[in-house]
TrEMBL record:
Taxonomic placement: Bacteria, Pseudomonadati, Pseudomonadota, Betaproteobacteria, Burkholderiales
Parts of the chain that traverse the membrane: none
Superkingdom classification of source: Bacteria
Gene3D superfamilies the record matches: 3.30.160.20
Pfam family membership, one: RF-1
Organism of origin: Roseateles asaccharophilus
UniProt family annotation: Belongs to the prokaryotic/mitochondrial release factor family.
Domain Prokaryotic-type class I peptide chain release factors: 9-130
Name listed for the protein in its UniProt record: Ribosome-associated protein
Region (Disordered): 101-135
């Protein structure tokens, strides 16, 4: 499967405005600029293979119920935090859509085996020459 060109539908996203943690003075105590984005994997428009891969991932952002929860609080703007949360969700889904290429076992070539053994023999003779000198 090549890169998945997917973006979530607005009805699949649930946003909660919350107060951001960290510095910000008086503003941080009275304005809810941080965003919790909730995205239900099972009820989404994602392909089944991507859904299965996401649900099997050991990611702390994915709950046991199959809901992705992303907290965005980098910006002081609610809209920028919403956009950041959606971008991070898309990035997460893109990573799950990427199927790693299957590794095939190969044998080392005869020449590489010989070079390895020659190097070991040379190193062995160097170390053997460091022994005690007898008169």
């Amino acid at each position: 499967m090549p890169d998945l060109n997917w973006s979530p539908r607005p009805d699949e996203l649930e946003f909660d405005a919350i107060r951001a943690s960290g510095p910000g003075g008086q503003n941080v105590n009275k304005v809810s600029n941080a965003v919790h984005l909730r995205f239900d994997i099972r009820a989404s428009s994602l392909p089944e293979a991507v859904k299965a891969r996401l649900l099997n991932w050991a990611d702390q952002r994915i709950t046991a119920d199959g809901v992705v929860v992303i907290k965005a609080q980098d910006s002081r703007s609610l809209e920028r935090n919403r956009a950041d949360a959606v971008a991070r969700l898309i990035e997460l889904v893109q990573a799950a859509a990427h199927v790693p290429k299957a590794r095939r076992a190969t044998k080392p070539t005869y020449g590489s085996q010989q070079r390895r053994l020659e190097g070991k023999a040379k190193r062995s003779s160097v170390k053997a020459g460091r022994g005690r000198v007898l008169d």
